[in-house]
Each structure stands twice: as structure tokens, then as C-alpha cells.
Amino acid sequence: MWRHSSEDFSVSNIRYFSKHKGEVNCCAFSPDCQIMLTCCDDGRLYLWNATSAKHLATFNGHSGPVKSCVFSSDGQLFASASHDRTVRIWSRSITECTHILTAHSGSVETVSFSPDGQWLVSGGWDNRALIWRVQSGELLEDLRGHTAAVQSSAFSSDSQCVATGSWDRTVRVWKLFEEKEAVTLQGHLGNVACLCFSVSGMLASGSWDGTVRVWSPLSHACLFVLGGCERVWVRSLAFSRDGLVLASTAEGDMVRIWDVTTGVCLKRLVIRTQHTAVCSLLMGSFSPAVLNSWM
């Protein structure tokens, strides 16, 4: 894990988390930033003290690689998505799985909680995004329209909309529990690997084509196309709390900080460590924490 430590954006390696038996696919922080969750190709989830790097717990249950993990907004639950075609909801307090969600017919690649904690979205190789009720594990909606795997997902800050990104190179924005057709956002030339909403409803999407696109919450027009020169996979995105700054990571060793009002790159961070790839970002007002996976 790395942390922004000064105005010139110098960094230092501050913690190393070592228990995984395979490649780390995803990382997530609890809302208070005290606990870190990681998931791995070994089929397990790992809970850590983010400050001390102490290993707190290991969660078993999946029978295949765990592709995505996320905390609920209150930090009491977390969810995991796996190649075994299931989604699991776990209780942090009792350290047990509370629901196993089994409607997908292929590997599940992404999972996200709504900010209000009521809903969960999952997406995967069956080209579908499914909406679940967190409390009961009930399947509520089956969102169809993508023509290839759903790799990424995100809820809007008001929990009324969900965005999905696909290997079909499109982003779809769905209004929950309405019959309206999803809005389709086109322009990426590669798989859409990551998504995030700002507090104002602005949507950012990152792609294997090496670009980040920023979309208007009202017109759904593309406001900016960021990056793209290196043609490397954009792995993760995070807006600052005020929604004015966006952090993006590219496959390899680059993190960029963007002003989303102008599209200008404000700062760059190059991570000089062998065999790492940035797998997740967490942003404060202007301070990204960068989570790395060691290959």
C-alpha cells in the first residue's frame, strides 16, 4: 500500500501484506479506512488492519478465484464475486457468510453495494447485471442488454442508478426499478474495466483502450477523454470527496490525478517497484491511497 505524502506527490512503500497464495485481484477499504479487504486467485478473502498490516481473518467458501470484493457503506458487511459463479455476502462482526447468491451462469467479475446499503449489483460472463436485496439475498432485477461480459459496476451517490461496463466496449446506465431503457454510452475502443460516480452524478469509465472518459450526469455526453497515449489498461478510478478531482491507474506503474473541470492532468505518480500492479484506489479530498498487488 502507498499513500500520498507531500505536495510534490512523492511516495514511499509503507506496508506490505503477505498471506496470499495467488494473484490479488481486488482490494477494498472499510469506510473508516481502518480495515482492508483483499481477494485472491486462491479463492479466499483476507481481512487486514490497514495501519499495522496485521492479518485479522481469512474467509473461505468460494471454490474458484475471487474476482471482486467491496465493503458496504456502514462497513458491517462485505461482498465477494467469484469465478465459481456465485456472489457471497459476509458479516464482518460474526465473520460468516450470510447469503450465497447463485443466479449467474458464468464467472462473476464485479460486485458493488449501493450507498444506502439496500442493494447489491453483480455482473459477469453471462452478460447480465443482477440487482439483489442485501438484507434477504432476494434477486430483484435482471438487467440485460450488454452483448459481452459485464466487468465493472457502480451505483450513483443517491442509490437510484447503477452503471455497468462491459467487454462489448459500452457503459450502460440503468434507473433502478423502472421500465425505461438503459442509456448506452459509447466511445471506448476496449473493454470497460472500471467505473465510478462523483457526488454530483458525474460518471467516469476506464478502459483497456488506455483512456478514461468522463460523462455528464444530465446529457450523458462525454465531457473529456483523459489519457490514451500509452494504450495500457486502466485498472481503477476514484473521485475525490468533493468530486472535483479524479485519480486513475494504468496497468503497470502509473497513477494520474485529473482536474475534472478542465480535463488537465494535475500530477503523476510513478511507482518504481518490480512485479506490482495497482489494483485499487481510495481518494480523500486530494489524497489517494494506492493498493498494489504483487505478482
From TrEMBL:
Extract the CDD domains matched here: WD40
Q: Which Gene3D superfamilies match?
A: YVTN repeat-like/Quinoprotein amine dehydrogenase
WD repeat start-end pairs: 17-58, 59-91, 101-142, 143-184, 185-216, 234-268
Q: Supply the Pfam families for this chain.
A: WD40
**Superkingdom of this protein's organism:** Eukaryota
User: What keywords appear on the UniProt entry?
Assistant: Repeat, WD repeat
Protein name per the record: WD repeat domain 38
Lineage at the top is: Eukaryota, Metazoa, Chordata, Craniata, Vertebrata
